[in-house]
Amino acid sequence: MVTPRVLARTLLSAALLSLGIAGLSEAKTQKKTPAPSRPTASARTWTPTAQQISAAGRVTRMALSYRGVRYRYGGASRRGTDCSGLMLQVFAKEGLRLPHNARAQFRLGKPISMAGLQPGDLVFFNLHRKLGHVGLYIGEGRFVHASTPRTGVRIDSIVSGTYRRSFAGARRLIATPKAPANSEPLPASVEPLLQQESSTLDAAVTTEAKE
């Protein structure tokens, strides 16, 4: 005969066993379900800095401001400059220290095809079958460079004539701002900056070309 005390102990043991199994099951379920991960930087709203937006434009306008400066071999100032000296000066304003040599500058940055050129890219040319000249692409198939002692710093076409035939390659030293593939659209406050930068640069290039 089962006494009330024995029955009570049996029911208590069964209850405790049931609670233990339920707790174990819950723990296993929680272990299988991973906690939600924190969003990565690329998944958050991406906003380019003012420096990223304007650096290529500043470099291009700086190079255009040297138009008319006389050519001087070994020079790197507004009193006279050679091709690599001009690049040295305009990129120094962005904190980039370039070597004073076209071939050494060709070893820097990211290689860019002619089809992929953007304002602010360095463009290189062969002289007497050897790489020996550099300029800065300003858009619309043109570039600014310290040309010769007779012409000084000037604008020329890269898509036809001598410079098209002697084109040796291009390098990008200032990265173009691009949003990660899975980022959200640019905030509305940033779009006007991009448009203003593009319009200002186009106007500067057009004015210089007409003079």
Biggest sheet overview: 6 strands, antiparallel
> pLDDT below 50 for ≥5 consecutive residues: which ranges?
19-48, 179-211
Proportion of residues in extended strands: 15-25%
What is the share of helical residues?
Answer: 25-40%
Overall outline: globular
Q: What is the CA-based Rg, rounded?
A: 32 Å
Strands, total number: 8
* Mean of all residue-level pLDDT scores: 73
Class by SSE composition: alpha+beta
Number of helices, where a helix is a run of at least 4 consecutive DSSP H or I residues: 6
Strand line-up across the major sheet: 3-8-4-5-6-7
Distance between the termini: 116 Å
Order of helix and strand elements from N to C terminus = HHEEHHEEEEEHEH
Characterize the structure shown.
This protein is an alpha+beta fold and 211 residues long. The chain is 40% helix and 18% strand. It has six helices and eight strands. The protein has helices at residues 4-32, 50-64, 83-92, 102-106, 161-165, 191-210, and strands at 76-77, 80-81, 110-112, 122-127, 130-139, 142-146, 153-157, 167-172. The protein has a six-stranded antiparallel beta sheet. It has a two-stranded antiparallel ribbon with strand order 1-2. Strand 1 and strand 2 (80-81) form a beta hairpin. Helix 2 (50-64) runs antiparallel to helix 3 (83-92) and helix 2 packs parallel to helix 6. It is globular.
